[in-house]
Automatic annotation (TrEMBL):
InterPro entries: HAD-like_sf (IPR036412), HAD-SF_hydro_IIA (IPR006357), HAD-SF_hydro_IIA_hyp3 (IPR006356), HAD_sf (IPR023214). GO terms for molecular function: phosphatase activity. Coiled coil: none annotated. Pfam families: Hydrolase_6, Hydrolase_like. It comes from Moritella yayanosii. GO terms for cellular component: cytoplasm. This is Uncharacterized protein.
Amino acid sequence: MKMISGLKDIINEFDTFILDQWGVLHNGGDAFPKAIETLAFLKQHGKKVVILSNSGNTHHFSYQRLTDSGISRDLYIDVLTSGDHMRHNFNQGKFAHLGSHALVFGWGDGINGTVLEDCGLTSVGIEDASFIMCYGVERGTVAEYQADLDIAYARGLEMVVSNPDLVAMSPDGGLKLCPGSIANAYAEMGGKVHWHGKPQAEVYDMCRTLLGGWEHAIAVGDSLEHDIRGANIAGIASLFLTTGIHADELNEKVANKDDVIAASVVADLSREFDVLPSHYIDWFKVD
């Protein structure tokens, strides 16, 4: 594992850059100060750039989110989301055995209807549900879902999760709960969960097909559990950003908060997740 100061240090080593969205390019607000410059740098060097996002929405929603953040559409080839992955599997008939009556855990923002329509589902209560669609987190904590999870487990219901992230960064720098935390709790109970997005190998296969293949790819992200584990599973290089969701954990491991985070500190935290990034950096930047 090697620390780099910017992508200029590795620009000639890779033909393809697979970028996480939240924590790398933005946190739901404006693009990070160096993000647009770095995307332009990759474009100037003729690199394939795809954004692989654990978002329950489709790539179309991500296009708008990125544009709103200040990132123009011509700076990347495409976006692939965990929501796209899930919709693909529904459309391919993978979940036909689950039926079409879903207990929906959503964001409560009016987008749930598109998920149901895209997957051919009907939203019902827990007693009438044939499975759980875990798309968002409207309630404040996992504990507030426990009663439904207990009933679902007793009935032997399976869960489909469209966003496996446990938490995500907010524009204010805090962390917000994500659907993966609910799905993880259900899995720990013994419930069967169908995961989508990173770190599933299938989504990297979809990404490779979308790009028409690659020779030397590197995945860039701030989540050891999803971005780095996914890269390890896919057999590609990875670049871990230390300023993302693990920033507090890393800072707790250094003696002085102003110290440069050493490779040994990143390695210690990586071992806790049983993953290994090939490179690490603070921010997504050129130099």
